[in-house]
Specification:
The protein is α/β, with parallel strands linked by helices. The chain has twelve helices and 22 strands. Strands 11, 13, 14, 15, 16, 17, 18, 19, 20 and 21 form a ten-stranded mixed β-sheet that branches.
Amino acid sequence: MKRRYTVSGLVALAMLTASLLTGCSEQEPILLPAPTQSATTPALKPYSISSQDGDEQFTSVYHSRTVDLRVALPYEGCTVQLLPTTDEEVGAITDKLEHFTHLGAFTLLPEECRTTEWVDDAEDPLIKHLKVALTGIEDLDYGYYVLPIKVQAAEYTMSHYILVNRLGDVVPLGEATKRLPPDLLGGPERTEPMKMVAYVETNNYDIRNYGNLILTGSRLPVFDFIVLFAANMNYDAVEGRRYISFNDKLQPIVQHPEIYIKPLTDRGIKVIVDILPNHQGVGYNNFQSYEEALDFAKEAKMWTDKLGIDGWDVDEEYAEYWKLPTLETSEMSALWMVKAFKEVMPDKLITHYEFNSPFSADLTDEDGKSAKDYVDYSWSDYNVTGLSFIDMPKLRYGNRSIEANSSWQVAGAASSARAVLSSGLGLFMYFNLNPEALHNGSQIGYLSEVTKIFYGESCDFVGPLYKGPAK
């Protein structure tokens, strides 16, 4: 997965750390590349280092693996060597990391956890590969580690930083995939593993805890989607326009997405933000035109880029339309909104909580598209047993969602999981699982019953129990 470094702190870090490691005669600043959706690795400028996905500044690692660094040479046949990093340089690097990432204390990765090997590129004589084998990561204490890579090529010196986040023994989704259900319930048409969704009430719990839930054998994350509940759709009466608002509990996440969101997306988990009307007279049913929806979508894109999230969730509740009677409701309104979101952010997801849905399955826009053509995934209200209200395909829908504040629903989730699977559906949603109950073991058994049905594996809570930003 393409890593996103859109956070100003990390960009500042990239520029500041470029001057920390000096070489024989010239230090080329290595700036963080702009976010890109390209699947190809960009061409490297001479005397620079890039990781497998094209990032020139950092590689984030969560478990033992080999990191392939592509070193671009200034000219063919020049001398290349790996230089040691002095204690003074390491101290400067860790100080900068702690200051600009806000993640906490960084320490140097122990020498016994790394070995390096140079490999020539058979296709390009101006590229050499530095294979950095990281071992024993799972045996380290929880915390943040850094391995500075300092390379001299001819008269040039360049640097790259491998950040080891020892916060749980997790294999990111994308490096491996979950298994199909053990007994292929739902028939041979099931071509994808079940996807699990966790809604998190950010007023109550820290979203990072849900990334610490992993399958016991494969070490993959339990949850494919984590939905932040919720940002609000508010109304500015002076400007006469709606906007996205984040309450005080969401502010730490908004201010420091590198702390709260990036550890989840680095695990391959899709992070979605729920947009909930907020008792102010605006909701999904009263956009006045496609142009108004497009304006709202452009603001959402700004937040998408800032936060590094994967999409937005449609959740029609608490609009109280009577408070703004001058804004007429329209059956086309919600369809305008999702069409606008896809126009502005075609690579991002739209999900939908099918409670009080603002969509109609048979309503189409001027392009002949209905809601299911714009919505990527949806799931039902609690204990709803029917098919999708908006006629979503089975593998993109899930019913019998679990209200985790109800102990009997948590305890009975395995029965619901079997029903969802045998119906040929593709998703299973939990709302507000209690991380402390999962961490202390009192509820992990119930969740394991579900993961055994879906993947043939139990699950564990690994890593620290986070208690912020919601306290």
